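INFO  loader      accepted 1 record
INFO  loader      residues=575
INFO  predictor   begin
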Amino acid sequence: MANDSKTWRCGKYELSFDRPRIMGVLNVTPDSMSDGGEHFDQDAAIEYGLAMLDAGADIIDVGGESTRPGFTPVNPDEEARRVLPVVRALAKEGAIVSIDTRHVAVAKAAVRCGASIVNDVTGFTDPKMVEFVKTSTCGVIVVHAGEVAAPARTHATVQLDTSAAAFVAEKAREAAVEAAREAEKPARRRRGKLLGEPKVEAKLPGGVVQPSLPLGESEPAPESEPETPAAEQAAPAAAAPETVSAAAEAAPEPSDHLAAMMRRSARREEAYVPTSQLRRFTLPDSAPIMRRVMGFLSDQARTLIHAGVSRDRICIDPGPGFGKTANEDIVIQRETAKMASLGYPLMCAVSRKRFVGAVSGVTQAAARDAATFGVCLGAIQAGANIVRVHDVAGFAQFLNGYWAVAEPQPRRAFVAVGSNLGHRCDNIRAARNMIAEIPLTCVSNCSRIYESEPAYETRQDTFANAIIEIKTELAPLVLLDELMKIEAELGRDRSKKAKANGPRTIDLDLLWMDGETHGGKKLRLPHPLIGERDFVLVPLEDLMHDPARFFRYNGVEVKEPEDRVGHIVGELGRM
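INFO  predictor   done
INFO  writer      dumping tokens
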């Protein structure tokens, strides 16, 4: 749980799990389970994604195809048209973007547009998807979307006969069956193969066997459904430069295995259970269910590793709701600790699922957020690292409250302080004292106060600048709100009429926090302008050895001294 040693490399980002990470759900679809159509417009989707970042999301998961029960498969070209502008806009704002897709062509285009994670609901059972992620640096999420119930066994009616002749005949039948088995001598199944899976023939380069997803037998397509014209399968390339060519990648099969499985799952969930099938226990046995789920996740993770994907890029997700009944989902969630023991970052993606409604008694999917938070808390306590939720603002508030009490976790951060109005040094000292009064925060060190040339807006007085090193147990966005309160109390004008880089009594910038990467309009971590600001890098030399090297290691581009802005011109004393 706290201080989890796992890390997850996702392209240029690296996520640590000393604190649970929040993935916000962004469905750019007209028919999603709980928010279908709300963010189908691209501008609305982008705005909502940025709002989730500002509310506390660490990752935004963008999807263009609903996979709810009874969903209609979406052509890859249409899916790409929906998601690519959204992915590009969010990535431009520094967001860690996940593309939720089962189509390799969409995944390729999204990564080119800035996505850092590929979230494949079919668990990378498509060799083409494996081949693609092998050649990229993106993070991957292996999802189990399959049925976990053991195959039903049929029993013949037995007529009891106690005669000696019947006994001899039964023994003869047993001997004949045994002889037939010896004659066949079937090949022993390889260890780790999932029960009930068909023989797999797909192989990856290097001889790696690619398991199939445990979706069961697909349903035949209705005879009355006309074939989709080829012209409707692909959008013209000129209409959208990133649109995937239908000739380049195959469209969904006429009989879609995932869609068929989800239809069966919904019917199985709603089916009436006759009295002859009533169970003796409240839940099914966990052992066969977890053998299927954990076996598949382990096999797929190993397949990716053998294909060339580094282990620290892989995250696993048991796929709640995908082919599973409420009882089966509860069994799987109760075994979160076992799944976490596999050693990969573990996703809890239960938000507003049917089983959450079943245990909470809430019928409407959009009203299940409170119950979702409860299930997520149980998963976090058992070792889940990432929670995928619709209500980011609510869950961030919930998690911050819980974490402050349950997990003492002071982390180092740096705050830049500047002033060029009034008594500049007194303003900086007053800000330091007020920062020390922020809840769950203390000031651990301060640089000297330096004088610097104005940056960006050069026609103004010189600045006094310093860096304050703090330790805090607050989440980054909560800490930022506290810093903004101090600015307001000391007379900082942040109205629209004030120049963004103009004169100010005080300016507080959160530069960096241990283990935090964040994007959005409200806060970027690390601060994107650290590497070009001389009035930040020089004071930092009082607090650490070689700050330029430190920030370069953390992925920040640092310019040479002569190419920076706001050069230091003198020293004004100690804090």
